[in-house]
């Protein structure tokens, strides 16, 4: 079976991962999981329980349920908080006949549905008009750029301009991220603006939203035999997924000394992590450890390393992905001081 | 276009009618409405509003939404109260490409979905296992028979027996209603029983649930030119839908004198209704009046007549259906004294 996903617009939505949750049919769930993983999405399998759904609801960007739609709807009703807060939700029936976007059609679940249906040879049940409506919100843009909104109070005015169809100039970028909708233009001649910067700036113009690009911490888990070349490739693969360049990385962290040499080569500070640090670290959004990790007495490597080295306030922005079965990489934002 | 519905098991579910609610695409909604009506289902069209959904939720047996699934799910979450209380919910996309059961798969919405998809040449998106699970509850059986449970406290024991797979004898019926699931048997030799009766009985055996068959009131609206023959056919058509025989009818009611002759011929008391009575009557579940009725200053005929003649506590059990475009018939239970 070969899977052909489009890795352009969508992947930015699923950086925090896709939870695959099944009620009874583990076999079908594993097929869905594999379809997602083979295409590089960070996907994690869970058996249905209210506890698991609750965690997935807050920790993952999307949930794919393998169960009947009626049960999914009852579950969604229990956890839904609003369009801006809920993950995308997709349902696949036990027989893998249909893939159905349930929540977040315009936030990526239609696209995920189409990709998954193609991979599984199922029918995508798209019920929204094909034309995507709406605009990319400032918050989404910030999220895509891995940036922080400095002056939140300017968002309303700039958003209103976008909704009226007025141009909003984006300054500080050479090109817009792919998939951005709305009248954003690269330029200088607008009444309303979005300024993207990596500097500490003051932002007093009420017609301008300032976005500060955040630094990131890269956590790496590697098998003993993983070569520096493969480790380096894995780091760049993760940065590529996030559309980040190396200058955004403030630290690379790992249990392995072999990663340190890669850090040095890349000119990025290295942070050595100890097993004790890992096991005293708690975050409910961590990917459950694999059997092998559990045997080693570790609750995780890549994600925990990224979060520890990111410092206080670090947030996971790329759930761990595997690279060539030898390396795992996860990325967190570096916490504000 | 020809519609071929199966009128066997399902129709009992939709006696209180199917609300067709559309967000924007009235044209598609009307096609759905016609598909339902041409097969005799009492179906009513509404534009989406929270008020209309709220009323449909409590007044109709099923709701078919013509809109995107995401919006339907958000709406369902707002109104859902539990499996036993919610109507069946089905979604059809604006393009009539998919028909999707959302709530109540085992309570009829899968069947409704299949019928509707066939009529509309759409894809039925069935996500539950094809085998229907579960048993017909005592309450459902009572509802099907248009009966009242006399000793509610015996329900738990008899239901437990059914869930254990034990036989439950049904006494007082020659055959079981179609579509009943579970180990109900016609017979006398069971530990657990359901007694169906039209008498006032005392019911003290804790292993026996007693169901008292209710009398009904038939409300008739007729065009001036409708012949007694057609009126009579219409009445029997309604009784047939409910699997009722004439001896269950305690009154026939109408604005029209022509209906009185039919009542006499059938040996059923007639209740003449006046326009004043109709317009001073209030029930939030009434089918909204047609344009023609509104012009005549009437808020409804068949349903109001049935409810008025049914007395205090009367409940609508068959939303008005049209017969040969000349007669409308609705049925209510006769209120307990």
UniProtKB/TrEMBL annotation, chains A, B:
<dbReference type="InterPro" id="IPR002750">
    <property type="entry name" value="CobE/GbiG_C"/>
</dbReference>
<dbReference type="InterPro" id="IPR021744">
    <property type="entry name" value="CbiG_N"/>
</dbReference>
<dbReference type="InterPro" id="IPR052553">
    <property type="entry name" value="CbiG_hydrolase"/>
</dbReference>
<dbReference type="Pfam" id="PF01890">
    <property type="entry name" value="CbiG_C"/>
</dbReference>
<dbReference type="InterPro" id="IPR036518">
    <property type="entry name" value="CobE/GbiG_C_sf"/>
</dbReference>
<protein>
    <submittedName>
        <fullName>Cobalamin biosynthesis protein CbiG</fullName>
    </submittedName>
</protein>
<dbReference type="Pfam" id="PF11760">
    <property type="entry name" value="CbiG_N"/>
</dbReference>
<feature type="domain" description="Cobalamin synthesis G N-terminal">
    <location>
        <begin position="53"/>
        <end position="131"/>
    </location>
</feature>
<dbReference type="InterPro" id="IPR038029">
    <property type="entry name" value="GbiG_N_sf"/>
</dbReference>
<feature type="domain" description="CobE/GbiG C-terminal">
    <location>
        <begin position="217"/>
        <end position="332"/>
    </location>
</feature>
<dbReference type="Pfam" id="PF21437">
    <property type="entry name" value="CbiG-like_linker"/>
</dbReference>
<dbReference type="GO" id="GO:0009236">
    <property type="term" value="P:cobalamin biosynthetic process"/>
</dbReference>
<dbReference type="InterPro" id="IPR048775">
    <property type="entry name" value="CbiG-like_linker"/>
</dbReference>
<feature type="domain" description="CbiG-like linker">
    <location>
        <begin position="137"/>
        <end position="212"/>
    </location>
</feature>
